[in-house]
Write a structure and sequence with these properties.
By secondary structure, the chain is mainly β. The protein is built from three helices and 20 strands. A hairpin with a 2-residue loop joins β12 and β13.
Amino acid sequence: MPTRAKTSPFSRVATLALVLVAAPSAAQPVPGAPDDNPPATLTGALGQGFTFRTKDNSSALNLRARTQVQAFTETKAEDPKTGRTERPDVGFLVRRMRVVFQGHVHKKEFRYYVQLGFSPRDQESDLLVPVRDAQLIWTGLRDLNVRFGQMKVPFNRERVVSSSALGMVDRSNVNGELNLDRDLGIMLQSRDLFGLRELLRYNLGVFGGDGRNRTTSGTGLLYAARVEVAPFGSFDDYSEVDFKRSSKPRLAIGFATGYSEATPRSRATTGDTLKAGTLDYRHGAADVIFKMGGLSVQSEVLFRKASQTVLRRVDEAGKTVTEHPRNAWGYMVQAGYLIDGHLEPSLRYGEVRPLDTSNAKLQRDREIGGGLSYYFHKHDLKIQADYFRLLTDADPAGVNVLERDRVRIQGQVFF
């Protein structure tokens, strides 16, 4: 019959001590092994970026980045006096390079949105600040959301649509002249007023009036309002391409108005800084977008008029400085058809017309052209090309017209 080995009291105490010491370590997760109850999660995908979430989802941070790289060529206009034409501009540029931080803190109704731009055209030449958007957002009520900070002014649709979601390489000449860009202020809004399945929406905002990243003393404010109606229900009307190819018609109609009080800039929120004083501008916009079966059609009309016809001031040297407002109106029409979910040809015509002859620098300007886009992964990975014939009157009578040709090829990655 086997006999049991005898153990000393010291051995028993030592064994117990080792067990007590090793037990907490054994309870810790093994490096590299999955944690059944992680304190936070990290996910990532093309078009969605990286998202960090707390275990209870009370807070989240989404990080996205995009780049647009462009090759272009544009012929010089022929000199109407000499008939000479200079060599065309040819080059490459990083059109946009953006980083976005967005998410919520404490509760989903307390949101934030920050966007930085690092390419040369993402910043104004006289103010190299990368901040494009910096918003605090409260979405606690269906009929009343609040945005506070720097954001796009709610005016024309083409400007409010993200530059990442365009159906052509870039926006129209009409938008370039007559839009209201970003500004600092506060905005009230609802995407589903009265709970009508997003049939009715509104935006009301009060802004500093000087444009993004600027605070000028002694100037007035910018007031803006926008109303939208989607009679057939909600759809992706802030993407210019009909990726869903719905068999049912989709339509959104928007109207907007704005008033710039004592603005120091020639285009209200953008343009040169005025030297002879400030301007009061009235703005108006109407736009429509229609989608069905891969077809997308959009159009808008924009208007801007100052209450003054001329600004004059005598400078320190005793010289009289004279400036004129950029009173103008314009319209654009654009259409595209998504053939197989990836390839889309498109066409656009845009025209800007001065309201009067007071500003010699502002003449009738037209663009007509077409584009071809290929979407590898919708807007997140795409390549686009377009050609435009550009025509600008060289005199108020429109006798001489400066004609140019522009070709652009642009690729976008939006992680």
